[in-house]
Amino acid sequence: MADKPHMNLVIIGHVDHGKSTLVGRIMLDTGQFPAHMLEKYKEEAKAKGKESFALAWIFDNLKEERERGVTIDVAHKKFDTDKYYFTIIDAPGHRDFVKNMITGTSQADAAILVCAAPDGVMAQTKEHMFLARTLGVKQMIIAINKIDDTKPPYDKNRFEEVKTEIVKLAKSVGYKDDQMQIIPCSAFTGENVLKKEKLDWWTGPTVLQAVDNFIVPEKPINLPLRWPIQDVYTIKGVGTVPVGKIETGIMKQGMQLIFKPSMKPGGASGEVKTIEMHHEQISQAQPGDNVGVNMRGLAKNEIRRGDVAGPVNDPPTVAKSFKAQIMVLNHPSVITKGYTPVFHCYTAQVACRFEEIEKKLDPRTGAVKEEHPDFIKTGDAAIVKVVPTRPMVIESAKKIPQLGRFAIRDMGQTVAAGVCLEVEEAK
Protein backbone atom coordinates (compact mmCIF):
# COMPACT_ATOMS: atom_id res chain seq x y z
CA MET A 1 0.00 0.00 0.00
CA ALA A 2 2.69 2.44 1.00
CA ASP A 3 4.31 2.62 -2.45
CA LYS A 4 1.15 4.15 -3.97
CA PRO A 5 0.40 7.85 -3.51
CA HIS A 6 -1.81 8.40 -0.47
CA MET A 7 -4.96 10.54 -0.26
CA ASN A 8 -7.39 11.46 2.50
CA LEU A 9 -10.97 11.15 1.31
CA VAL A 10 -13.91 12.57 3.26
CA ILE A 11 -17.45 11.29 2.75
CA ILE A 12 -20.02 14.01 3.43
CA GLY A 13 -23.71 14.70 2.81
CA HIS A 14 -27.13 14.86 4.41
CA VAL A 15 -28.10 12.36 7.12
CA ASP A 16 -29.67 9.13 5.77
CA HIS A 17 -28.49 9.74 2.21
CA GLY A 18 -26.34 6.60 2.42
CA LYS A 19 -22.82 7.72 3.39
CA SER A 20 -22.02 4.80 5.67
CA THR A 21 -23.54 2.30 3.27
CA LEU A 22 -21.40 3.71 0.45
CA VAL A 23 -18.30 3.45 2.62
CA GLY A 24 -19.23 -0.13 3.55
CA ARG A 25 -19.74 -0.95 -0.13
CA ILE A 26 -16.38 0.55 -1.10
CA MET A 27 -14.65 -1.44 1.66
CA LEU A 28 -16.34 -4.63 0.48
CA ASP A 29 -15.74 -4.06 -3.24
CA THR A 30 -12.05 -3.28 -2.74
CA GLY A 31 -11.55 -6.46 -0.69
CA GLN A 32 -10.93 -4.72 2.63
CA PHE A 33 -13.61 -6.72 4.32
CA PRO A 34 -13.96 -10.50 4.16
CA ALA A 35 -17.24 -11.74 2.68
CA HIS A 36 -17.88 -14.19 5.53
CA MET A 37 -17.97 -11.25 7.96
CA LEU A 38 -20.59 -9.59 5.79
CA GLU A 39 -22.78 -12.70 6.08
CA LYS A 40 -22.42 -12.53 9.86
CA TYR A 41 -23.43 -8.85 9.86
CA LYS A 42 -26.36 -9.55 7.55
CA GLU A 43 -27.66 -12.22 9.93
CA GLU A 44 -27.29 -9.85 12.90
CA ALA A 45 -28.94 -6.98 11.05
CA LYS A 46 -31.80 -9.23 9.94
CA ALA A 47 -32.35 -10.39 13.51
CA LYS A 48 -32.71 -6.75 14.55
CA GLY A 49 -34.97 -5.93 11.60
CA LYS A 50 -32.37 -3.57 10.11
CA GLU A 51 -31.31 -5.45 7.00
CA SER A 52 -30.56 -2.36 4.95
CA PHE A 53 -27.97 -1.29 7.50
CA ALA A 54 -25.74 -4.37 7.09
CA LEU A 55 -23.16 -2.58 4.92
CA ALA A 56 -23.09 0.49 7.08
CA TRP A 57 -22.41 -1.79 10.03
CA ILE A 58 -19.09 -2.69 8.52
CA PHE A 59 -18.18 0.85 9.28
CA ASP A 60 -20.17 1.63 12.37
CA ASN A 61 -18.87 -1.09 14.57
CA LEU A 62 -19.49 0.86 17.72
CA LYS A 63 -22.31 -0.84 19.59
CA GLU A 64 -24.09 2.43 20.29
CA GLU A 65 -24.02 3.36 16.63
CA ARG A 66 -25.58 0.05 15.66
CA GLU A 67 -28.43 0.54 18.02
CA ARG A 68 -29.09 4.08 16.87
CA GLY A 69 -28.32 3.43 13.21
CA VAL A 70 -26.26 6.64 12.93
CA THR A 71 -22.58 7.44 12.55
CA ILE A 72 -21.12 9.26 15.52
CA ASP A 73 -17.37 9.30 15.47
CA VAL A 74 -15.07 10.10 12.60
CA ALA A 75 -13.91 6.61 11.76
CA HIS A 76 -10.77 6.06 9.73
CA LYS A 77 -10.69 3.23 7.23
CA LYS A 78 -8.29 2.39 4.41
CA PHE A 79 -8.73 0.98 0.92
CA ASP A 80 -6.71 0.98 -2.24
CA THR A 81 -7.37 1.20 -5.95
CA ASP A 82 -5.09 0.56 -8.92
CA LYS A 83 -3.67 4.03 -8.58
CA TYR A 84 -4.00 5.27 -4.98
CA TYR A 85 -4.10 4.27 -1.37
CA PHE A 86 -6.96 6.05 0.43
CA THR A 87 -7.81 6.80 4.01
CA ILE A 88 -11.56 7.39 4.28
CA ILE A 89 -12.76 9.89 6.81
CA ASP A 90 -16.45 9.13 7.29
CA ALA A 91 -18.02 12.40 8.33
CA PRO A 92 -21.22 12.16 10.29
CA GLY A 93 -24.26 13.85 8.76
CA HIS A 94 -26.19 14.40 11.97
CA ARG A 95 -26.30 17.95 13.29
CA ASP A 96 -24.82 17.26 16.71
CA PHE A 97 -21.89 15.45 15.14
CA VAL A 98 -20.89 18.24 12.78
CA LYS A 99 -17.86 19.19 14.86
CA ASN A 100 -16.35 15.79 14.04
CA MET A 101 -17.21 16.38 10.43
CA ILE A 102 -15.18 19.59 10.54
CA THR A 103 -12.09 17.98 11.99
CA GLY A 104 -12.52 15.36 9.26
CA THR A 105 -13.06 17.68 6.33
CA SER A 106 -10.25 20.07 7.14
CA GLN A 107 -7.73 17.30 6.55
CA ALA A 108 -9.24 15.91 3.36
CA ASP A 109 -7.60 16.00 -0.08
CA ALA A 110 -10.87 15.19 -1.82
CA ALA A 111 -14.51 14.53 -0.96
CA ILE A 112 -17.40 12.34 -1.96
CA LEU A 113 -20.62 14.24 -1.35
CA VAL A 114 -23.50 11.77 -1.16
CA CYS A 115 -26.92 13.00 -2.22
CA ALA A 116 -29.91 10.64 -2.44
CA ALA A 117 -31.68 10.69 -5.82
CA PRO A 118 -35.22 10.47 -4.36
CA ASP A 119 -34.66 13.45 -1.98
CA GLY A 120 -32.30 15.67 -3.96
CA VAL A 121 -30.52 18.60 -2.31
CA MET A 122 -31.34 18.93 1.41
CA ALA A 123 -30.31 21.40 4.13
CA GLN A 124 -27.14 19.56 5.10
CA THR A 125 -26.21 18.92 1.48
CA LYS A 126 -25.89 22.71 1.24
CA GLU A 127 -24.09 23.07 4.55
CA HIS A 128 -21.57 20.34 3.75
CA MET A 129 -20.97 21.67 0.25
CA PHE A 130 -20.17 25.12 1.62
CA LEU A 131 -18.04 23.73 4.43
CA ALA A 132 -16.02 21.61 2.04
CA ARG A 133 -15.42 24.72 -0.05
CA THR A 134 -14.52 26.97 2.89
CA LEU A 135 -12.26 24.32 4.36
CA GLY A 136 -10.32 24.04 1.12
CA VAL A 137 -11.46 20.78 -0.48
CA LYS A 138 -10.71 21.40 -4.15
CA GLN A 139 -12.05 18.22 -5.80
CA MET A 140 -15.22 16.30 -5.30
CA ILE A 141 -17.26 13.36 -6.51
CA ILE A 142 -20.97 13.95 -6.14
CA ALA A 143 -22.50 10.50 -5.75
CA ILE A 144 -26.19 10.63 -6.59
CA ASN A 145 -27.07 7.60 -4.48
CA LYS A 146 -30.17 5.40 -4.08
CA ILE A 147 -30.70 5.53 -7.86
CA ASP A 148 -32.37 2.09 -7.44
CA ASP A 149 -35.02 3.88 -5.36
CA THR A 150 -36.26 6.34 -8.01
CA LYS A 151 -39.58 5.79 -9.77
CA PRO A 152 -39.02 4.03 -12.13
CA PRO A 153 -35.81 2.52 -10.67
CA TYR A 154 -32.49 3.69 -12.18
CA ASP A 155 -34.25 6.67 -13.76
CA LYS A 156 -32.06 8.86 -15.95
CA ASN A 157 -34.45 11.84 -15.78
CA ARG A 158 -34.35 11.96 -11.98
CA PHE A 159 -30.55 11.78 -12.10
CA GLU A 160 -30.47 14.74 -14.49
CA GLU A 161 -32.84 16.77 -12.27
CA VAL A 162 -30.74 16.24 -9.13
CA LYS A 163 -27.56 16.85 -11.12
CA THR A 164 -28.85 20.24 -12.31
CA GLU A 165 -29.84 21.17 -8.76
CA ILE A 166 -26.49 20.15 -7.28
CA VAL A 167 -24.37 21.82 -9.97
CA LYS A 168 -26.23 25.05 -9.30
CA LEU A 169 -25.47 24.70 -5.57
CA ALA A 170 -21.81 23.84 -6.17
CA LYS A 171 -21.30 26.82 -8.48
CA SER A 172 -23.00 29.18 -6.02
CA VAL A 173 -20.30 28.38 -3.45
CA GLY A 174 -17.52 28.62 -6.03
CA TYR A 175 -16.81 25.13 -7.41
CA LYS A 176 -15.91 24.92 -11.09
CA ASP A 177 -16.93 22.18 -13.53
CA ASP A 178 -13.50 20.59 -13.59
CA GLN A 179 -13.52 20.18 -9.79
CA MET A 180 -16.61 17.96 -9.79
CA GLN A 181 -17.52 14.50 -11.08
CA ILE A 182 -21.23 13.66 -10.83
CA ILE A 183 -22.10 9.98 -10.77
CA PRO A 184 -25.26 7.90 -10.27
CA CYS A 185 -24.96 4.86 -7.99
CA SER A 186 -26.66 2.62 -5.48
CA ALA A 187 -24.50 1.86 -2.48
CA PHE A 188 -27.08 -0.67 -1.26
CA THR A 189 -27.19 -2.80 -4.43
CA GLY A 190 -23.61 -1.95 -5.41
CA GLU A 191 -24.67 -0.55 -8.78
CA ASN A 192 -21.95 1.58 -10.41
CA VAL A 193 -19.65 1.50 -7.38
CA LEU A 194 -17.26 -1.16 -8.66
CA LYS A 195 -19.20 -2.25 -11.73
CA LYS A 196 -22.23 -1.26 -13.75
CA GLU A 197 -25.11 -3.60 -14.57
CA LYS A 198 -28.46 -1.80 -14.60
CA LEU A 199 -27.49 1.76 -15.57
CA ASP A 200 -27.31 1.10 -19.30
CA TRP A 201 -27.71 4.81 -20.11
CA TRP A 202 -24.67 5.83 -18.04
CA THR A 203 -21.45 6.21 -20.03
CA GLY A 204 -19.29 7.80 -17.33
CA PRO A 205 -17.06 6.18 -14.69
CA THR A 206 -18.02 4.06 -11.69
CA VAL A 207 -17.36 5.51 -8.23
CA LEU A 208 -14.13 3.52 -7.91
CA GLN A 209 -12.93 4.66 -11.34
CA ALA A 210 -13.79 8.25 -10.46
CA VAL A 211 -11.66 8.28 -7.28
CA ASP A 212 -8.69 7.40 -9.49
CA ASN A 213 -9.33 10.63 -11.43
CA PHE A 214 -8.53 12.65 -8.32
CA ILE A 215 -5.20 14.46 -8.38
CA VAL A 216 -2.90 14.17 -5.38
CA PRO A 217 -2.44 17.71 -4.05
CA GLU A 218 1.14 18.93 -3.87
CA LYS A 219 2.39 18.37 -0.36
CA PRO A 220 3.10 21.74 1.27
CA ILE A 221 6.72 20.80 2.09
CA ASN A 222 8.08 24.26 1.25
CA LEU A 223 6.07 25.89 4.02
CA PRO A 224 7.46 26.05 7.57
CA LEU A 225 6.77 23.00 9.73
CA ARG A 226 3.39 23.15 11.48
CA TRP A 227 2.42 20.18 13.60
CA PRO A 228 -0.85 20.48 15.60
CA ILE A 229 -0.99 18.19 18.63
CA GLN A 230 -3.85 15.70 18.94
CA ASP A 231 -2.75 13.95 22.16
CA VAL A 232 0.20 13.82 24.54
CA TYR A 233 1.36 10.51 26.01
CA THR A 234 3.92 9.63 28.63
CA ILE A 235 5.53 6.34 27.69
CA LYS A 236 7.50 4.43 30.30
CA GLY A 237 11.20 4.44 29.55
CA VAL A 238 10.66 6.81 26.58
CA GLY A 239 9.28 10.04 27.98
CA THR A 240 6.87 12.61 26.53
CA VAL A 241 5.36 11.60 23.18
CA PRO A 242 3.09 14.15 21.45
CA VAL A 243 0.99 12.72 18.60
CA GLY A 244 -0.60 14.52 15.64
CA LYS A 245 -0.73 14.99 11.89
CA ILE A 246 1.87 17.15 10.19
CA GLU A 247 0.06 19.86 8.24
CA THR A 248 2.98 21.61 6.51
CA GLY A 249 6.76 21.41 6.23
CA ILE A 250 9.14 18.58 7.03
CA MET A 251 10.13 17.18 10.42
CA LYS A 252 13.53 15.58 10.89
CA GLN A 253 15.32 13.94 13.76
CA GLY A 254 17.43 16.36 15.78
CA MET A 255 15.21 19.38 14.98
CA GLN A 256 14.56 21.90 17.74
CA LEU A 257 10.81 22.53 17.99
CA ILE A 258 8.81 25.09 19.90
CA PHE A 259 5.21 24.37 20.96
CA LYS A 260 2.76 27.27 21.13
CA PRO A 261 0.78 28.56 22.97
CA SER A 262 1.71 25.75 25.46
CA MET A 263 1.32 25.80 29.24
CA LYS A 264 4.77 27.31 29.55
CA PRO A 265 5.04 31.10 29.10
CA GLY A 266 6.76 31.85 25.77
CA GLY A 267 6.27 28.27 24.58
CA ALA A 268 7.79 24.91 25.47
CA SER A 269 10.63 23.60 23.37
CA GLY A 270 12.52 20.37 22.87
CA GLU A 271 14.46 18.24 20.42
CA VAL A 272 13.04 15.58 18.11
CA LYS A 273 14.69 12.37 19.27
CA THR A 274 12.76 9.79 17.22
CA ILE A 275 9.72 9.89 14.91
CA GLU A 276 7.28 6.98 14.68
CA MET A 277 4.52 6.34 12.17
CA HIS A 278 2.32 3.20 12.30
CA HIS A 279 4.70 1.78 14.96
CA GLU A 280 7.74 2.09 12.73
CA GLN A 281 10.60 4.54 13.17
CA ILE A 282 11.15 6.97 10.32
CA SER A 283 13.95 9.52 9.88
CA GLN A 284 11.70 12.29 8.60
CA ALA A 285 7.99 13.02 8.28
CA GLN A 286 6.03 15.16 5.85
CA PRO A 287 2.55 16.68 5.49
CA GLY A 288 -0.24 14.15 5.94
CA ASP A 289 1.87 11.88 8.15
CA ASN A 290 0.31 11.04 11.49
CA VAL A 291 3.26 10.74 13.82
CA GLY A 292 4.22 10.17 17.43
CA VAL A 293 7.45 11.92 18.37
CA ASN A 294 9.74 11.24 21.27
CA MET A 295 10.77 14.72 22.43
CA ARG A 296 13.89 15.39 24.49
CA GLY A 297 13.63 18.14 27.10
CA LEU A 298 9.84 18.42 27.10
CA ALA A 299 7.61 17.71 30.09
CA LYS A 300 4.13 16.20 29.58
CA ASN A 301 2.44 18.98 31.56
CA GLU A 302 3.94 21.71 29.34
CA ILE A 303 1.89 20.92 26.22
CA ARG A 304 -1.64 19.81 25.41
CA ARG A 305 -4.02 19.07 22.54
CA GLY A 306 -4.47 22.16 20.36
CA ASP A 307 -0.86 23.36 20.74
CA VAL A 308 1.11 23.62 17.50
CA ALA A 309 4.80 22.81 17.06
CA GLY A 310 7.07 24.59 14.60
CA PRO A 311 10.78 25.32 14.14
CA VAL A 312 12.34 27.53 16.81
CA ASN A 313 13.40 30.04 14.12
CA ASP A 314 9.91 30.20 12.52
CA PRO A 315 7.46 29.54 15.36
CA PRO A 316 3.69 29.19 15.01
CA THR A 317 1.81 32.51 15.30
CA VAL A 318 -0.13 33.08 18.53
CA ALA A 319 -2.93 35.56 17.91
CA LYS A 320 -3.89 38.51 20.06
CA SER A 321 -6.66 39.06 17.51
CA PHE A 322 -7.31 38.13 13.90
CA LYS A 323 -9.39 39.27 10.97
CA ALA A 324 -11.46 36.60 9.23
CA GLN A 325 -13.92 36.08 6.43
CA ILE A 326 -16.84 33.95 7.59
CA MET A 327 -20.09 32.56 6.27
CA VAL A 328 -22.99 32.21 8.70
CA LEU A 329 -24.47 28.77 8.01
CA ASN A 330 -27.04 28.37 10.68
CA HIS A 331 -27.76 30.73 13.56
CA PRO A 332 -31.21 30.85 15.21
CA SER A 333 -31.19 34.65 15.60
CA VAL A 334 -28.51 37.22 14.83
CA ILE A 335 -24.79 37.58 15.53
CA THR A 336 -23.69 40.89 17.00
CA LYS A 337 -20.53 42.40 18.48
CA GLY A 338 -19.52 40.57 21.68
CA TYR A 339 -20.81 37.14 20.54
CA THR A 340 -18.39 34.47 21.89
CA PRO A 341 -18.81 31.01 20.31
CA VAL A 342 -16.18 28.24 20.07
CA PHE A 343 -13.78 28.26 17.11
CA HIS A 344 -12.62 24.82 15.91
CA CYS A 345 -9.33 25.15 14.09
CA TYR A 346 -7.09 22.07 13.31
CA THR A 347 -7.07 20.35 16.77
CA ALA A 348 -7.75 23.50 18.85
CA GLN A 349 -11.12 24.49 20.27
CA VAL A 350 -11.10 28.01 21.69
CA ALA A 351 -13.90 30.42 22.58
CA CYS A 352 -13.38 33.64 20.61
CA ARG A 353 -15.17 36.97 20.86
CA PHE A 354 -16.49 38.93 17.88
CA GLU A 355 -14.81 42.28 18.51
CA GLU A 356 -16.17 43.94 15.40
CA ILE A 357 -18.27 43.14 12.35
CA GLU A 358 -16.39 45.15 9.74
CA LYS A 359 -18.24 44.34 6.50
CA LYS A 360 -21.18 42.35 5.28
CA LEU A 361 -20.52 40.65 1.92
CA ASP A 362 -22.63 39.16 -0.82
CA PRO A 363 -21.95 35.42 -0.30
CA ARG A 364 -22.10 34.69 -4.02
CA THR A 365 -19.83 37.44 -5.32
CA GLY A 366 -17.85 38.57 -2.29
CA ALA A 367 -18.78 42.22 -2.95
CA VAL A 368 -19.25 44.51 0.09
CA LYS A 369 -22.95 44.98 0.85
CA GLU A 370 -22.65 47.02 4.05
CA GLU A 371 -19.89 48.60 6.15
CA HIS A 372 -20.01 48.01 9.94
CA PRO A 373 -23.44 46.33 10.04
CA ASP A 374 -25.14 46.01 13.45
CA PHE A 375 -25.59 42.28 13.00
CA ILE A 376 -25.23 39.33 10.61
CA LYS A 377 -27.52 36.33 10.24
CA THR A 378 -27.84 32.94 8.52
CA GLY A 379 -26.80 33.16 4.87
CA ASP A 380 -24.62 36.25 5.33
CA ALA A 381 -20.91 36.40 4.62
CA ALA A 382 -18.82 38.91 6.55
CA ILE A 383 -15.38 40.21 7.46
CA VAL A 384 -14.99 40.20 11.25
CA LYS A 385 -12.36 40.99 13.86
CA VAL A 386 -12.03 38.22 16.42
CA VAL A 387 -10.29 38.03 19.81
CA PRO A 388 -9.51 34.59 21.31
CA THR A 389 -10.40 34.30 25.03
CA ARG A 390 -7.20 32.33 25.62
CA PRO A 391 -4.01 32.05 23.58
CA MET A 392 -4.36 30.12 20.32
CA VAL A 393 -2.31 29.58 17.20
CA ILE A 394 -3.85 30.64 13.90
CA GLU A 395 -2.09 31.56 10.65
CA SER A 396 -3.33 33.70 7.79
CA ALA A 397 -4.78 31.44 5.09
CA LYS A 398 -2.49 33.11 2.55
CA LYS A 399 0.62 32.12 4.49
CA ILE A 400 -0.40 28.66 5.77
CA PRO A 401 -3.90 27.72 4.56
CA GLN A 402 -3.91 24.48 6.59
CA LEU A 403 -3.89 26.52 9.83
CA GLY A 404 -6.05 29.36 8.60
CA ARG A 405 -9.40 27.56 8.31
CA PHE A 406 -11.94 27.10 11.08
CA ALA A 407 -15.54 26.32 11.94
CA ILE A 408 -17.57 28.18 14.53
CA ARG A 409 -19.85 26.17 16.82
CA ASP A 410 -22.45 27.12 19.37
CA MET A 411 -25.53 25.45 20.88
CA GLY A 412 -24.51 22.06 19.54
CA GLN A 413 -24.30 23.10 15.91
CA THR A 414 -22.04 24.68 13.36
CA VAL A 415 -23.10 28.29 13.11
CA ALA A 416 -20.41 29.47 10.69
CA ALA A 417 -17.17 28.58 8.94
CA GLY A 418 -14.37 30.74 7.68
CA VAL A 419 -10.77 31.56 6.92
CA CYS A 420 -8.28 33.79 8.67
CA LEU A 421 -7.18 36.81 6.58
CA GLU A 422 -4.59 38.40 8.88
CA VAL A 423 -3.24 37.95 12.40
CA GLU A 424 -2.27 40.50 15.04
CA GLU A 425 0.41 38.64 16.94
CA ALA A 426 0.32 38.33 20.72
CA LYS A 427 3.49 39.71 22.25
Question: Can you give a write-up of this model?
Answer:
With 427 residues, the chain is α+β, with helices and mostly antiparallel strands. It has three domains: 6-211, Rossmann fold, CATH 3.40.50.300; 227-311, Elongation Factor Tu (Ef-tu), domain 3; 319-425, Translation factors (Elongation Factor Tu (Ef-tu), domain 3, Beta Barrel). 18% of the residues lie in helices and 34% in strands. It has helices spanning 19-29, 35-47, 54-59, 63-68, 98-105, 123-134, 156-172, 207-211, and strands at 6-13, 75-80, 85-90, 110-116, 140-145, 180-184, 227-228, 231-235, 239-245, 251-252, 256-260, 268-277, 280-282, 284-285, 290-296, 308-311, 319-328, 342-345, 348-361, 368-371, 381-388, 405-410, 413-425. Mean pLDDT is 85; it is low at 62-66, 69-76 and 92-101.
**Integer count of domains:** 3
CATH topology of the largest domain: Rossmann fold
**Low-pLDDT ranges:** 62-66, 69-76, 92-101
Please identify the top-level CATH class of the largest domain.
Alpha Beta
Please give the share of residues in helix: 10-25%
Rounded mean pLDDT is 85
Q: Which architecture of the largest domain does the CATH hierarchy give at level 2?
A: 3-Layer(aba) Sandwich
Cα distance, first to last residue? 46 Å
CATH superfamily of the largest domain: P-loop containing nucleotide triphosphate hydrolases
Shape: globular
Largest sheet: 8 strands, antiparallel
Strand content: 25-35%
